[in-house]
């Protein structure tokens, strides 16, 4: 993994203008492969501890008879586990998150996305729709390609500049095969969208107001990714107040204090 400062002025400019930037070959493909191996084990073990990782089935593949990992959509709450915490502890990740969020940072959300063949994409949304926080921003997302992400297998598409928008109305995704929690923005012109084609180990750094979606996986192979979200320490998670119950997928973990990783495995 890249050592030292990875965020350049060009990245800052891109983030300010577009709401995202990419860091190609950020991690070695083995980093994502170790994460994939770990979550495959989790899907087979079917964990029942509500405080630990949470496995979400792929609605569109229900009843298709595949192995557990072939019918899983996402696994949440992974950032306390070794391979994931080690990634977050790396100097390169610390540089990226400190650059946007300052010296004291929590990771509150982690999700491994399998995107198996036949899985449906996630419609246009802004992640902040899911995050009723005080302050509401900044919130930063990191999307790590575990496999290649292509037009055929359902890569991300982003709308550059849309992070300047407020959080739009999101309506329920009404497709019969849509996953739990999928919602959609329908009141905005997405014609300027661009696909984000990735190789394993490439990273997208993005603002939580950036409008993005992914398309269906029409290929024969998995399109896997690992996504983390971060906010400044002390951010108030108001999910319980707003929705009546705490989020089952949020897990606030201190990851950086005074600009340094506080996780095991820091390099
Ligand atoms: O990777 C995907 O298919 C969708 C990911 C996404 O939209 C998100 O993490 O907010």
What does this molecule look like?
By secondary structure, this protein is an alpha+beta fold. It has one domain (9-261): Jelly Rolls (Sandwich). The chain contains five helices and 16 strands. It has helices spanning 9-18, 29-45, 82-89, 91-101, 239-243, and strands at 20-23, 54-57, 72-76, 105-113, 133-134, 139-145, 156-158, 171-172, 183-184, 194-196, 203-207, 212-214, 225-232, 236-237, 253-257, 260-261. The strands form four sheets. Strands 1, 2, 3, 4, 6, 11, 13, 15 and 16 form a nine-stranded antiparallel beta sheet that branches. A three-stranded antiparallel beta sheet has the order 10-7-12, with no helix packed on it. Strand 15 and strand 16 form a beta hairpin. The longest helix is centred in the N-terminal third of the chain and has 17 residues, at 29-45. The model has no long low-confidence stretch (mean pLDDT 94). The structure holds 2-oxoglutaric acid. Residues 113, 115, 122, 127, 156, 212, 214, 225, 227 line the site of 2-oxoglutaric acid (AKG). The site of 2-oxoglutaric acid has 9 residues, from strand 12 and strand 13.
